[in-house]
Amino acid sequence: MENQVEEIKSKLDIVNVISRHLPLKKRGRHYIACCPFHQEKTPSFTVSPELQIFKCFGCGKGGDVFTFIQEFERVEFPEALEILAKQAGVVLKKTPQFSAQVSRAKVLLDINKNLSRFYHYLLVSHPLGKNALDYVLKRGLSLDTIKTFQIGFSPPNSQLLLNFLHKKNFADSDLIDTGTIGRSQYGSSRFYDRFSSRLVFPLIDHRQNILGFSGRALPGAPDNQAKYINSPETLVYHKSHMVFGLNLAKDFIRDTKTVIVTEGEFDMISPFQAGIKNIVAVKGTAFTLEQLQLLRRYADTLILALDSDFAGATAAQKSIQLADSLDFDIKVLTLGRKYKDPDEAVQADPVFFKKQLSSALPIWDFLILSSVHQYDASTVKGKKAILSTVLPFLIKIENSVIKADYFKKLADAVNSDYEAVSQEASKYGQNNSTPPPVSLDSLPPLSLQEKLEKNLLLLILGSKHPSKMVKNLKKELKIIALPSHQKLISLLSQKGRFSPQKIQQKLPPEMRDIFQSLFVQGTSIVIDAPRRLLEIKKLISQLQIDKLKNQLSALSQEIIKSEAKHQEKQLLRLESRYNRLLTKLSHLQVTK
Ligand SMILES: [Zn+2]
């Protein structure tokens, strides 16, 4: 296994692998791009061909080709391995352990595919699905659309499905692990289908895998049945990652840079059928960071086509804040009072729907307008309600010019003035419930010594001959005190030509990341040789000063203690040492 990982790595160039997904630009010894893992306008995502790694200096993400594919494609290691083995032309020899891992997910996906085919066949080609098919057609979906989305029907009698699956030789335990098949509590050998008697929508990811299902109750179902049910979380299905329809919509989203987000399957499918194809659905109004990040890869603008009263819901407010933190341009589709959801609107009046879409309101305008609609701005109570609905959003606007604009708009809406509104805004606190910044470096701040040592290493690693540099400065570099930095210096001073790959191999795993960051960052610094040497010497003397200062402050503590205890002899000794160090310090500070 380990060998195969190395074999794949040796056959692939990380620059080639990543440039399949990102436009990489050469800069110096590296390649750079805007980071796919966090929002940025100037590129800090760096690929090092020498070390065969990537590193983002904005969000801190980094690693080798495998890490990249895992992060970018959102897959686990075994899947990344498969993807890259294919690219490298390596046939994977599977150890039992490994195949267990991969095949587990594969088996579940395979069962899901079979389930989906069975359901779909039943809906479109079997008398058992006739009623369900009539219902879908009556709701305005064409047979073509039904096929495109592979919509299906699960028969009331689960035995049919189980017979079909057993004929395919799937193990019962695997069937249960898909989340679709359950074991009945009455009698140990009875299985049932969770989606029985329902219309079934396969939940397909952007890579065409069927991860799970969503089932809608049909008219005439008992009242105590939930209208919609979904697959439970499984090895392959994670609700928080699922964006319905993305497999079909992603190219259209990429082309238009805009994604329309709806709440349910029909709200996504009907507009798609009507030619509005840059559209997806998430379940409910609470987006997750994962869903938004996935969409952010393709789109700059997010048009919310949710239920009309969504703005009041806390979940929606959080979603909007989250989308805002990813720098989405957020708009809201309004359907007036005429239609209750996108499905109904597009079926009844596609021209109206498209018109509303093209005039979707910026989120802040929408919030002001909808709350003025909801509350009476002429009463004190109404004004208060409007302010408390809208202000928590407006205070989050990062751009202060835009923020001031909306404060003015809000002030107008409640017949007040800008000052009063912005004063009111301060009550809500500027940062109270801001969502956590997306994956920022969570390292503790560096001490001065750490900073100086780090900068010193950056300059050394970025020089033309790092090893020579270290040998020439051997005596001075003794000032370096952090163990990880010392280790690096000692590796650099070893015999032979400097090779970042070799150093990487010799380092203990926990230090590789530190080295990679230092190397990639160091070799990105452009500075001529004499200037570099000057900077290096400056840093060394700063380190010496820092060390002296620390020693002096420790000494002064001791002096105070000795004074208190009247230890005259000790005091004299300490004081003379103190003065010696002080002279040294002033000497260093003069020559600095
Ligand atoms: Zn980043």
Structural class: alpha+beta
- Helix count, DSSP H or I runs of 4 or more residues: 26
Number of strands: 16
Strand content: 5-15%
- Distance between the ends: 54 Å
State the helical fraction: 40-55%
Shape: globular
Show unreliable segments.
Answer: 431-443
Short description:
The chain is α+β, with helices and mostly antiparallel strands and 592 residues long.
Structure description:
- This protein has 26 helices and 16 strands.
- By secondary structure, the chain is α+β, with helices and mostly antiparallel strands.
- A hairpin with a 7-residue loop joins strand 7 and strand 8 (191-193).
- It is globular, with a radius of gyration of 32 Å.
Entry keywords:
592 residues; alpha+beta; 26 helices; binds zinc ion
Strand-helix topology:
Blueprint: H1 2-11, H2 14-19, E1 25-27, E2 30-33, E3 45-48, E4 53-56, E5 62-63, H3 65-73, H4 77-88, H5 96-125, H6 130-138, H7 143-148, E6 152-153, H8 158-167, H9 172-177, E7 181-183, E8 191-193, E9 198-204, E10 210-217, E11 228-230, H10 246-256, E12 258-262, H11 265-273, E13 279-281, H12 289-296, E14 301-305, H13 314-325, E15 329-332, H14 342-348, H15 350-358, E16 361-362, H16 363-374, H17 380-394, H18 400-413, H19 418-427, H20 448-461, H21 466-472, H22 483-492, H23 500-506, H24 509-522, H25 529-565, H26 568-591
Parallel strand pairs: 12-13, 12-14, 14-15
Antiparallel strand pairs: 1-2, 2-3, 3-4, 4-5, 6-9, 7-8, 9-10, 10-11, 15-16
Zinc ion (ZN) binds near residues 38, 58 and 61.
